[in-house]
Amino acid sequence: MASATAPTTLSLLPTTKSSSTSSATPSSSRVHLSSFLGGRPLRRLGFAAADPLLAVQVASKVRSVSGRGVRGVVSMAKKSVGDLSAAELKGKKVFVRADLNVPLDDNQNITDDTRIRAAVPTIKYLIQNGAKVILSSHLGRPKGVTPKYSLAPLVPRLSELIGIEVVKADDSIGPEVEKLVASLPEGGVLLLENVRFYKEEEKNDPEHAKKLAALADLYVNDAFGTAHRAHASTEGVTKYLKPSVAGFLLQKELDYLVGAVSTPKRPFAAIVGGSKVSSKIGVIESLLEKVDKLILGGGMIFTFYKAQGLSVGSSLVEEDKLELATTLLAKAKAKGVSLLLPSDVVIADKFAPDANSQIVPASAIPDGWMGLDIGPDSIKTFNEALDTTQTIIWNGPMGVFEFDKFATGTEAIAKKLAELSGKGVTTIIGGGDSVAAVEKVGVADVMSHISTGGGASLELLEGKELPGVLALDEATPVAV
Predict the structure, then answer these.
(1) 99, 105, 255, 273: which could form a disulfide with 298 (CB 3.0–4.6 Å)?
(2) Any bridge partners for residue 133, and if so which?
(3) What is the mean pLDDT of residues 359-380?
(4) Is residue 402 part of an annotated ligand binding site?
(5) What is known about its subunit structure (predicted)?
(6) 472 and 246 in contact (C-beta within 8 Å)?
């Protein structure tokens, strides 16, 4: 691998990092999910019909499961729903924990159905193999039974996407639910009411988990967005249901965020943005162990600037993280990571969409002004650095992209990643505001993978183990 490009920015780390060439190449296997979706690909999630369900850069051999998907064997490899045969599923009651926590407007209309569509491949696979699907999810943060957080508004869209009429229960446990389960035909789907209507759910109460598990024969967790929580429906039920396996979405998240990041095709770059260093400490420290290039943007950069003795005006600074910023800069230098900070910024006289603005060098922010975006020189430098990469992960915006006037940097990164995706670069959008950014720019479809989990994505990138994942059955290793 060629040496990483030396930074030309304020980080003053003219270092290079040598590495071996790609440790793996993508599998040529393809999973045509159009058969699951009636020809309609899953927007935003990398589930295009031409895209492999788990096209990841993994060191281990990828095997095909005829008619059942693809498994990438990674460090957190778990048994997948695709590993279960028709014989193992036909007539079986399957408890599926999905993440159907979609946004609703004041009239209870779904404003973004991404998470519902993300659950479709797993549900389709189960019903096509004769299983009886008991679908579970949370919605919002209810305090007890809260009508506005009922899953009832989801039924029409869910039924439309799956292609069958979904039956809705008024509870998630109890005699009435048991009757509905008993009457469920093979290939049928029963949607339980919001599991968080019970406080025992988030407390992972064993007795409550046992009641949920009593409804089914086996368990599938496809709720990556809640996999970092040990709740009754994500971790507790696995103690009573075997097998307990990952759904296609959860499997795909693991293989990208663990497999592709742990054994990337190099050079490997990470772009980390957001307002505060404190919220990304774990991610930055973890990525410094793995990347060749680290690009920083967003409000956190001003803490790094001040740590280097620069004036930052009234920009956001975490005073208690100045020493940390200095430590991270030193760690990057010691590890030979090319760490790039913006060389110029867009500053404003107030935090507002109609603020007066100007572009200044990062070393010349005047008093009373605050930085709200990266400047054009920084965009050019960042793009040039990304041109030589083969794997990129992005978490966090470059500026206050909610304000159009200060969205240029974030949108430029989104467009650059889309361009590189078209050239075969693996591009991973690690959840959070970065997802909103690529969606806003209209380039979500071309990214290699877009994570559906915010907190779960961050914890996985930090190297943390997720309780909802640990509880699942291990995959059978494939001989390499």
Answers:
(1) 273
(2) 94, 189
(3) 97
(4) yes
(5) Monomer.
(6) yes
